[in-house]
Task: structure prediction
Amino acid sequence: MSPSNRLNPGWLDHARMPLMQLRRAVDTALNDWIQPAPGGTVVDVGSGDSPYRSLFEAKGLKYIACDIDEPADVLIRPGEPIPLPDQSADLVVSFQVLEHVWELEWYLGECRRLLKPGGGGSS
Result:
């Protein structure tokens, strides 16, 4: 499924309702809860085809897609550090990924390592 289909699923898409609810949840989080400052960095761990990239970039954020497959900005090797500096993200996100992760302690540890102190809060 292309990023645009996940972001804007068609009427005949069997996953239309959950995908639309997820899109609304991301919009609500960005607009009401998180309110990230423009110029900040968001790291999407397990980004796949980066369907939500445009939502973050529309807020003026630098978006870094991390995944085990191309096309990712940063390739992940499970069990190894994600090749980004410690505390380099103002926000770390992950959508529809945890059910595919075998090493949760490593995965969540990397997310925490990448997040700046106080990251993920409102500006």
